[in-house]
Amino acid sequence: MENLKDRVALVTGSSQGIGRVIARELATAGCRVIVNCRNGHDKAEAVAAGIRADGGMAEVYCCDVSDEAAVNAMFAELGPVDILVNNARLDPWQRKPEMSEGEWFDRVMRVNLKGAFLCMKAAYRPMMKQKYGNGDWVARTLGVCPGCLSIYHFVPFAFVIAILVTSILVA
User: Fold this and answer.
1) Inter-axis angle of helices 17-28 and 41-53, to 10 degrees?
2) Cα–Cα distance for residue pair 49/76, rounded to 1 Å
3) pLDDT of 74-98, one tens digit each?
4) Where would a tag sit more exposed on the chain, N or C end, judged by fewer CB atoms within 10 A?
5) What is the 3-state secondary structure (H, E, C) of the chain?
6) Which residues 6+ apart lie within 8 Å of 63 measured at CB?
7) By percentage, how much of the chain surpasses pLDDT 90?
8) Largest Cα–Cα distance in the chain?
9) How many angstroms separate the CA atoms of 147 and 46, rounded?
10) CB-based contacts of 122: which residues, under 8 Å, 6+ apart?
11) Could you give the CA distance from residue 93 to residue 150 in angstroms, rounded to a whole number?
12) How far is CA 148 from CA 92, 109, 142, 151, in A?
């Protein structure tokens, strides 16, 4: 495994679940980890405190990744990020009953797709200048589960992210 000591890793949506595990593993590998969340500051701080208690380096940055100005401000404040893990997402069971199907679809696409795109765009220019960087997307395979109509939002997300990644790499 490559030496990740003192590399800066931003993990979006890392106040819980898979993101929390990824953040802890990157810290164990020597990264300074930015634990990102939209509004769960207490949970994010608990993740960062756990990393610090284990001897790692971690801080919290709350940011709605679907907000371009907020994402640009976050990257400007953090400085160059060596590793970006786009993990922030809305899961189907988070839908509020009063939301229409269209509203829910738009919200999912803003966070799951636009958020990943905005973070990727903000992170990759500095990565290219410093000639080091890595970006990953946590893919959700649930969207291709036959009969799982409540989670169909993930199907276009997975395909579009693959196209965006390819486009960025080719450019």
Assistant:
1) 30
2) 24
3) 999 999 898 899 888 887 667 788 9
4) N
5) CCCCCCCEEEECCCCCHHHHHHHHHHHHCCCEEEEEECCCHHHHHHHHHHHHHCCCEEEEEECCCCCHHHHHHHHHHHCCCCEEEECCCCCHHHCCCCCCHHHHHHHHHHHHHHHHHHHHHHHHHHHHHHCCCEEEECCCHHHHCCCCHHHCCHHHHHHHHHHHHHHHHHC
6) 36, 38, 70, 71, 73, 74
7) 43
8) 48
9) 37
10) 71, 72, 74, 75
11) 8
12) 11, 18, 8, 6
Tokens of 128: 């290219």
Q: How far apart, in whole angstroms, are the C-alpha atoms of residue 120 and residue 141?
A: 21
Cβ burial of 100 (10 Å; 0-12, 13-18, 19+) is exposed
Q: Are 65 and 110 in contact (CB under 8 A)?
A: no
Structure tokens at 162: 């693959």
Kind of pairing, strands 32-37 and 83-86?
A: unpaired
Exposed e or buried b per residue across 55-87, where buried means at least 16 C-beta atoms within 10 angstroms of its C-beta: ebbbebbbbbbbbeeebeebbeebeebbbbbbb
Q: Which residue has the tokens 């509020």?
A: 96
Q: Is the pTM of this model over 0.85?
A: no
Which residue in this structure is represented by tokens 């929390």?
A: 20
